[in-house]
Design goal:
- Chain A: This is Class I SAM-dependent methyltransferase.
- Chain A: One of its GO terms (molecular function) is methyltransferase activity.
- Chain A: Keywords: Methyltransferase, Transferase.
- Chain A: It comes from Streptomyces composti.
- The complex is a heterodimer.
- By secondary structure, chain A is of the alpha/beta class.
- Chain A has a domain at about 65-225: Rossmann fold, CATH 3.40.50.
- Chain A has helices at about 25-35, 40-50, 70-75, 90-105, 145-155, 170-180, 185-195, 200-205, 230-234; strands spanning about 60, 80-85, 110-115, 130-135, 155-165, 215-220, 220-225.
- The longest helix of chain A is centred in the middle third of the chain and has 16 residues, at about 90-105.
- In chain B, a hairpin with a 2-residue loop joins strand 12 (about 310) and strand 13.
- In chain B, the strands form 4 sheets. In chain B, strands 9-10-8-7-6-5-4-1-11 form a 9-stranded mixed sheet, sandwiched between helices. In chain B, strands 12-13-14 form a 3-stranded antiparallel sheet, with no helix packed on it.
- Chain B contains 18 helices and 17 strands.
- Chain B is globular, with a radius of gyration of 25 Å.
- Helix content of chain B is about 35%, strand content about 20%.
- Classes of the chains: A alpha/beta, B alpha/beta.
- The interface of A and B includes residues 1, 7 and 179 of A.
Chain lengths: ~230, ~450
């Protein structure tokens, strides 16, 4: 007999009060990601690369965490400029260190990281070909304004791709991940508790006036895009 | 001719509306002789002993283990012995006889001969171990020595399993293992000289640089060496290996890996081996009884050591995974039980199906004896579906997994018997997730009457 009993405490959204306020913890988080998250970055990277076209020049990452996805994407696209924006000083500092190492290894691509408010990004209207974000939405302080901002800076022919965890992802899948993250379990669950559900994202998009955007549930995550992603990749 | 039978009342049997007046106070007759021995017969039980140490950590192995360290190993063995003593003192355990044992790891033979002797002496001396109990141990060709082999045999361990993985030097190197195939072969000969008659070797397919030809070569060497049991596993490349970083040749394509599985199943069957668990092939009489019996006969298992999983008193559970916390808990006099679940009667029935099919066959009479139900009736829809798919065959005696198709899909078959509640849930990997569990009381299923399954009358 099936039951609706949920094992894990994920019914209500619990925002993280002051995320990443300890630089040592940020460094540990970054180290953990560098050691084990390559697989997790594979799909978002492929999704971004699938949208790249010949005439593109600028990519923007909104909330770059410690810069790993920007560095990973930029390394594959040396001719495109990747600009990352983040509003937490500790994250920016660690991302700068990662960028320094990439420069040292002659594999940085064309990347710059900048500290700015996500809901007031320092870019002109219609300036980015691809606006992307990964694992950041759950700690955006002003998600509706930031979504609008993503739409503002994206070129008319460009695309916005925002990925984050889905608080109501299949519980079996979440318990599976929990067995692997070990000491990172606390961090993982706090992020998941702060993450949105598909319907909550739909509400945010509605409030931002972006009803024509799309939300897809995929494995543990949600993929939000300004248009259907199949269009360009075909 | 006319034949008729008239049922009349008997002094002890009246049919309504006549009032019966045999005052019911016992079970009806049909009694047979029962002896003291039968009433007080010890039931079988198994024991799993975990040794989480290796003398050499292979970069391709994702399991939790520790480098052998003199002080840590010594402290750990003291704790393990204390855990054995704790279990051995419990009346429930004393009511059982140990018929099965498995010593796994890590590498149990990473311990010294003296340590192995001391541990096994304590284990066999504390628990009520049956004469001729089926004990298996895991080892590697590097860690086994004549002295250790003799200790194991003297203490009653009859089956040994060696992690060989491949007999091809290049593939051994790609796995980060000692890469002299001759040394591997010599370790098998050594075990046989010492008196081991039942030797299993583990082989891997899907290793970096492996081809169909090299896979066949490893199988041929194993068959020629006369090992009695061959288990093969699909190699999974984990992030820490990184083919590119270590400049390894790629792993074979999935289609090739699948073909390797089917090829091995066919080759070993032709060579006189019988299939168990889909990927284990043993000469008749040499099958790994620990898994087969504990699963098919629902034998309870005592788990010893960190992460060890057991099944006792209507619970499955696993031990504290952290070795430091494990030692501390045991030394404080408590069992190191960490997480698990109470198994209801209906889940116990399903568990026997899920694990029973892993052994390749589920017998109707055994199942009825264990659970009092006819699984062929209870799971008729699932069984019909599996038969339609060509994954099992069914007859009067029970069900049998088809080979090689059913072996290939063995875990799909197994999961067909999960209850809806557990579909799309993973097996535990020994992680403590207690801090993430919802605090509010778990909603209870409310049913007005027991389901057919719960009532155990589905036959």
């Amino acid at each position: 007999m099936a039951t609706d009993t949920r094992l894990l405490d994920l019914a209500e959204r619990v925002p993280i009060p002051s995320p990443h306020d300890d630089i040592d913890k940020v460094r540990l988080y970054d180290l953990g990601m560098r050691r084990s998250a390559l697989m997790a970055y594979k799909r978002p990277t492929e999704r971004i690369l699938a949208q790249v076209q010949d005439d593109m020049t600028d990519l923007v990452e909104v909330g770059f965490n410690t810069g790993l996805l920007s560095l990973h994407v930029a390394g594959k696209l040396p001719d495109l400029a990747v600009s990352g924006v983040e509003e937490n000083q500790n994250l920016v500092d660690v991302a700068e260190d990662n960028l320094t190492l990439a420069v040292w290894a002659n594999s940085a691509g064309d990347v710059e990281f900048e500290m700015a408010k996500l809901h007031r990004m320092p870019f002109p209207d219609d300036s980015a070909d691809i606006v992307f974000s990964f694992s950041s939405l759950h700690r955006w302080r002003r998600p509706v304004e930031t979504l609008k901002e993503c739409a503002r800076i994206c070129k008319p022919g460009g695309v916005v791709i925002i990925e984050d965890m889905n608080r109501h992802a299949e519980e079996g899948h979440i318990t599976f991940i929990l067995q692997f993250v070990k000491e990172g379990g606390e961090e993982f669950m706090r992020s998941l508790q702060a993450a949105y559900t598909r319907d909550e994202v739909a509400d945010l998009l509605k409030e931002a006036g972006l009803e024509d955007w799309q939300v897809a549930e995929e494995d543990l995550g949600l993929v939000i895009s300004s248009r259907s992603l199949e269009q360009v990749s075909e | 001719m006319s034949i008729s039978t008239t049922t009349t009342s008997m002094p002890f049997w009246k049919e309504y509306p006549e009032r019966d007046n045999e005052w019911v106070r016992q079970y009806p007759t049909k009694h047979v002789p029962v002896t003291e021995e039968e009433v007080f017969a010890s039931r079988p039980m198994g024991v799993y002993v975990h040794i989480p140490f290796c003398n050499r950590l292979c970069f391709s192995c994702p399991y939790i283990k520790h480098q052998t360290d003199r002080d840590l190993t010594r402290t750990y063995l003291e704790a393990l012995k204390k855990e054995i003593t704790n279990y051995a003192g419990r009346p429930y355990i004393q009511d059982h006889v140990i018929t099965l044992g498995y010593i796994g790891g890590g590498t149990p033979t990473a311990l010294t001969a003296t340590q192995l002797d001391d541990l096994l002496g304590h284990l066999f001396g504390s628990l009520n171990v049956e004469e001729g109990a089926d004990f298996s141990i895991e080892s590697t060709p590097v860690d086994i020595t004549e002295r250790k082999a003799k200790v194991l045999l003297e203490r009653g361990v009859r089956r040994i399993s060696l992690g060989v993985q491949t007999f091809v030097a290049e593939e051994l190197k790609n796995l980060g293992r000692p890469n002299d195939p001759e040394m591997l072969k010599e370790s098998i000969r050594l075990l046989r000289r010492c008196g081991f008659e039942n030797i299993n070797i583990d082989l891997m397919h899907g290793i970096n640089g492996q081809t169909m030809e090299s896979w066949e070569y490893s199988l041929d060497v194993a068959i020629e060496l006369g090992v009695t049991c061959i288990s093969f596993y699909t190699y999974m490349e984990f992030a820490q290996v990184s083919t590119k970083r270590r400049k390894l040749p790629p792993v074979p394509e999935k289609a090739v890996v699948d073909e390797m599985f089917l090829f091995a199943a066919e080759k070993l069957t032709k060579a006189g081996y019988l299939g168990y668990y889909g990927d284990c092939f043993a000469k008749p009489g040499c099958q790994p009884k620990y898994g087969e019996t504990s699963w098919s006969e629902d034998v309870p298992i005592i788990p010893l050591g960190p992460t060890a999983t057991g099944h006792l008193r209507d619970h499955w559970y696993f031990n504290e995974p952290d070795i430091g916390r494990y030692i501390q808990t045991v030394m404080e006099g408590r069992l190191p039980i960490s997480m698990g679940k109470h198994i209801t009667r209906s889940e116990a029935i399903r568990r026997s199906m899920v694990l029973g099919v892993k052994a390749g066959r589920v017998r109707r009479d055994t199942f009825r004896r264990l659970h009092g139900v006819d699984f062929m009736e209870m799971f008729r829809a699932e069984i019909d579906d599996l038969v339609d798919k060509g994954l099992i065959t069914a007859d009067e005696d029970g069900i049998t997994v088809t080979g090689p198709k059913g072996w290939y899909y063995l875990d799909n078959i197994s999961k067909a018997f999960y209850s809806p509640e557990y579909r799309r849930y993973p097996q535990h990997l020994g992680a403590d997730i207690s801090s993430f569990i919802a605090r509010q009381p778990v909603p209870v299923q409310i049913t007005t009457r027991p389901t057919t399954e719960e009532a155990g009358c589905g036959h």
